[in-house]
Amino acid sequence: MRFRDRFGLRKNRGDSVAKFDREATDADIEALIAFARSRKGVEFFVEPETFATDTTAVAVADDGEWTRRRVGSPKVIGKVARDLGLPVYDVQIVGYPPRMRAWNERNRDRARRIDPGTPGEAVSS
Question: Region Disordered: which residues (predicted)?
Fold first, then answer.
């Protein structure tokens, strides 16, 4: 069976792959698409590749709920965003939206009410 590069992950990757991370997969892209289709007001924020992490994108809904996935390259999430008719931003230029921080705070407080021993970090898949 021949592998299909549905989202252009291999084609747009370039020569470098982060050293301590796995590569982006179709499942990563499909998770971002599913998130975007199931929520209102989604925007994508591209995070740069680092030595330890592949290029990622954070999808943020209008209520601040978010998820982060590997995307392999900014071109990949750019194509996904165009296909979905959604905006995509470079997080190094625009930063994260305030609603994302507010969502983290609301959920951190909620977790503490349920289990006072819960650490303050929000969990996103």
Answer: 105-125
Residue 2 lies in a domain: no
Whether residue 83 lies inside any domain: the answer is: yes
pTM, to two decimals: 0.73
pLDDT digits (tens, 9 = 90+) for 25-81: 899 999 999 999 999 999 999 999 888 888 999 999 999 999 999 998 999 999 999
Task: Please report whether residue 123 resides in a domain.
Answer: no
**Rounded to whole angstroms, how far apart are CA atoms 123 and 26?**
22
- Domain count for the chain, please give it: 1
Collapse the DSSP code of 105 into the 3-class scheme (helix H, G, I; strand E, B; otherwise coil) and give the result: helix
Spatial contact of 67 and 31, defined as CB atoms under 8 Å apart:
yes
